[in-house]
Amino acid sequence: MNKYLIAMGTMLVSVMAFSGASDDNEINIDQAGDTLTLYIDQVGYGNKVGGDDFSTSSSASAITGSDLTFDIDQIGNSNLLFGTLEADSSTYNLIWTGDSNSWDWDIGYVGSADSSTLDVSVTGDSNTMDFDQGYVSSAERLDLDLTVIGSTNAFDVDVETDDVTFTMEVTGDNNDINTLQNDGFYQTLTFDLTGDNADVDINQISGTCAGDVTSCKGIITMEVVSDDAIIQINQKDTAGDS
């Protein structure tokens, strides 16, 4: 029997889902309000937090508010976390343990996303991550920590935030990593890579300085222990994607 949770409003939710099939458990959230604390634990195979893409079966995860705290753990294989968020002053703790999991999140794509803090841990192989912070509206500060242990993972991180601190530690072989820091006045990336055959593209583009800021700065600090890695770094003072 399929199981669904639809949650609305300012809330505290804790869910433990155990699954043995690829389409058993779904959590769909449509929420507006401040000071939301959300705990989700999904343990098993094929769990989903939506919305999009559940192959058109269901969709939600329109989340709007401030002072949000998310603690989401997906333990198992082939789990999905999708959705859009418009949130200020919010904290996200995300853990994946398993293989072939997929995360696709947009924070502040069409609305404000000031002062976000994300702590992300991924352990496993063949996982995919597509994360976007900011785009057309205000996105002032982001502190992102990403830790990856595993091989053949693919990560795409696009950040359009005034002030961003991004720390990434990757351990494993054959990982594909793409990062973009765009149109910010203070951007830092600390990147530690241990593993062979990595394909890494780093783009740090300061663009237009915000407000009364007279100079924009981008800093990349790397430590690489790898054979046969390909790393491309672009640092630019002009606006626009690389």
Structural commentary:
There is one protein chain. The relative contact order is 0.10. By secondary structure, the protein is an all-beta fold. The protein contains no helices and 20 strands. It is flat and about 45 Å long. The protein starts with a strand and ends in a 6-residue tail after the last strand.
Integer average pLDDT:
83
Q: What's the total count of β strands? A: 20
**Poorly predicted runs:** 1-22
Distance between the termini: 47 Å
Beta-strand content estimate = over 45%
How many helical elements? 0
- Class based on secondary structure composition and strand pairing: mainly beta
Biggest beta-sheet profile: 11 strands, parallel
The percent of residues in helical segments reads: under 10%
Shape, per Cα inertia axes = flat
Question: Radius of gyration, Cα only, in angstroms?
Answer: 18 Å
How would you spell out the order of helices and strands?
Answer: EEEEEEEEEEEEEEEEEEEE
Topology:
Blueprint: E1 3-7, E2 12-19, E3 25-32, E4 37-44, E5 48-50, E6 62-66, E7 69-75, E8 80-88, E9 90-97, E10 102-107, E11 116-123, E12 128-133, E13 141-149, E14 154-159, E15 163-171, E16 176-182, E17 186-194, E18 199-205, E19 217-225, E20 230-236
Parallel strand pairs: 1-3, 2-4, 3-5, 3-6, 4-7, 5-8, 6-8, 7-9, 8-10, 9-11, 10-12, 11-13, 12-14, 13-15, 14-16, 15-17, 16-18, 17-19, 18-20
Main attributes of the structure:
about 240 residues; mainly beta; 9-stranded parallel β-sheet; about 0% helix; about 60% strand
